[in-house]
Amino acid sequence: MEGKKKKTVPQIMRSLHRDIGFLMIGMTLIYAVSGIILVYRDTDFLKSEKTITRQLEPNLEPEQLGMQLHQRFFKVEKTEGEIVYFGNGTYNKTTGEAVYSSVSLPSFLNKINGLHKASSQSKTHWFTTIFGVLMLFLAVSSFWMFKAKTKNFKRGMVISVLGLLIAVVMLVL
Fold first, then answer.
1. pLDDT score, position 161
2. Can you give the pLDDT at residue 117?
3. Measured between alpha carbons, how far is 153 from 135 in angstroms, rounded to an integer?
């Protein structure tokens, strides 16, 4: 009875590339959707508007009001009596009631966008890190898909360099 033939490095890389590639399909689909949506984050694409009423302290100064409402570019437009008007709502200085509108993505899309914006403190940072490492592996292991002297390998090298150059040009622009 003969033992199993030992696999070569190219065979191992091809197997890993195939299996990790299949694993990455679902993860990549989620990242692709969130990446496309993030490109349009400065628009109202797929967002819905809702009216929010919040009870705040009375007599807040404009800077305090902007901080309480978590609005980055908060600016008071005018004040008429006790009512302060700002970009997307009003604030009653006497009662402390703020009424404003907000646009946001549906909850599910907000969550997948969080994957793209994850920081080391977020719960999803391991998912994001693993995704990045596996994508890096797929890029590098693809060089083992063809023998080095073949036409397909040489063509793949040219296309790889082209992709790298396109990325560099986009970063410089």
1. 95
2. 87
3. 20
Q: What residue type is 171 in one-letter code?
A: L
Distance, first Cα to last Cα, the chain: 64
Are 102 and 52 in contact, with CB atoms under 8 Å apart? yes
Q: What is the DSSP secondary-structure string of 126-151?
A: HHHHHHHHHHHHHHHHGGGSS-TTSH
Rounded CA gap, 51 and 101, in Å?
Answer: 4
Report which residue type is found at 5. Answer: K
Torsional sign, CA 117, 121, 122, 123 = positive
**Element holding 62 (H helix, E strand):** helix 62-68
Contact 137, 151 (CB under 8 A): no
Token pair 């030992």 is at which residue?
A: 6
pTM reported for the whole predicted model: 0.67
C-alpha 93/C-alpha 28 separation (Å) is 49
- Please choose, from the candidates 114, 116, 96, the residue with its C-alpha nearest in 3D space to the C-alpha of residue 104: 114
Joined tokens for residue 57: 């302290």
Could you tell me the pLDDT band of residue 96, with boundaries at 50, 70 and 90?
very high
What residues does 102 pair with on adjacent strands?
50
Question: DSSP readout, 47-60?
Answer: -EEEEEEEE--TT-
Report CA-CA distances (Å) from 24 to 16, 125, 134: 12, 17, 8
